[in-house]
Structure formats: C-alpha cells, structure tokens
Amino acid sequence: MARKPASSITLPPEGEVRASYSPPLAGLAPRGTLALTTAAAATRRSPRHRENEDQYRILDGEHPYVAAARRGSLFVICDGVSTVPRGKEAAELTVSRIDSFFQRRPHIDSLRELVIEIDWELRAGGKGSAACTLSLLWLADGRATVVHVGDSQVYRVRHGETTRITRQHVGGRALGAYMGMGPEVGKVLQIWQDELFAGDLFLMVTDGVTEVLPADELNDTWWAIGASPQLVAQAIINEVDRRKGRDDATALVVDVLDVETGSLGRVGP
After folding, report:
1. Of 140, 144, 182, 207, which is least surrounded by CB within 10 A?
2. Is residue 215 included in any domain, yes or no?
C-alpha cells in the first residue's frame, strides 16, 4: 500500500495534520448551494492482484437525490489494504456508506462522525480485519472540504499551479493511519478547507498512481488533453499501465465550472 510521498509543486508543511476543528472550518452549509461540476474516474487492477481493491464514488448534481438534498457534492476514493483479509470489502463498504451523509446535517462534524461510524463498522466492534484508505472531497457553500486518512492523494490545480492538499499517513512502508484502525482515527483524520472558485480542478488518486506519476505530470496531463475529466482520468490510468504500475490505480477528476453561494450566504465558522 504505502509508497514514497508523491512529488508536487506545493506541499503541506512537514508533519502538519489539520485536525477537525482547525480554522478555517465552515459551519452549516445553507440549503440550495450546489457547485456546478463535471467529474469522472478511471481505475485499473494491478496485474499482481486477483481483484481491484480500489473503489470510488461520484455523488454530484447528476444524481436526483443529491440535487434534491442540496447538501453539496461528494467525491470519494478508497484503497483497500491488501495486507489484511478484507481490504476490498472495506473500500466497498466505505464508499457505499458515504451516501448517508445526504440524510444528515450538512456540517463538517457530520462528516467526521460518519467517518468514525464507518471505522467502527469496519472493525466489527473490535473483531474485524477490514481496512482501507479514505480521501473525500465535499463541495458546498462556496467551499472545498477534504477529509483524508491514508496514503492516497488529493491535489488542487488553480491558475496552473498544483497544490497537494493531503499528507501521507505512513511510517516506512506501513500505513500509519487508515479506516479500520480504531478510535485513534478521529485524532489523526486530516480535514482541510478553502474557498472554492470556478475553474478549480481537483485530482484524486490512489497510491497506485502516485508511485509512478509525480504531481507535475498529473497537471501536464490535464493541460495536454483539455478540459475533459473523463479523458484525463483515463489518460492517467493508461500511463500508469504503460509504466507497468505494480498496484491498483484510480484517478478521479473534478472540474468546477461554477460556484453557487446561495441567497443565505455562508454560515460559520
């Protein structure tokens, strides 16, 4: 699972983990705020694996229940830990349970609570052996929020500059934090927020991508191919395959076309 940290143009400070209440965190997202986005993903199974243990989820305005809920859009990637018996199941359960956020209060605390609940389910009350990474992007109320644990990566491209948002929770070649680790997940969970602008691009990739493609090449792929998330995601995975990547690999690309701020304005922090 864990690989060397990916190269990028702008990195978080070494050792920084933005805890769940570190500023700036938005509070309640006004109903009726849904950014206009286009998103797509591509994935591949490692030749060394019997099954692809990566999973992803795109929950945007294309889904009627997401549009009706008016709680923003969610984009998720998970990478099952292959060194435990139920890594693929962990990733599948995590992405499927994320849907329940749209029945909850649209608040960062709701996301944090949901992550902790999923972690408990993966552990089966302390008796389980399922584990995966989680990188989640929530777009609502004119803000982008990233919730992250593990060694996948989320990048933002703005005005041609690529910034790595997430940090890798690794120790040597072992994961230092993951879904299914237990109560400590709430302490190590990285939560990042920033203002959202039309034209922002988010690249979400598992470590099967970052072990062979540095961030500047991911950025170059976008500009070389053009504004098509589907073509870019597939091109990234094709390049991983061409370079004979050893791990499962997934790329999810989100292009922000417009940002609705809503008539209520932002409520927070």
Report:
1. 182
2. yes
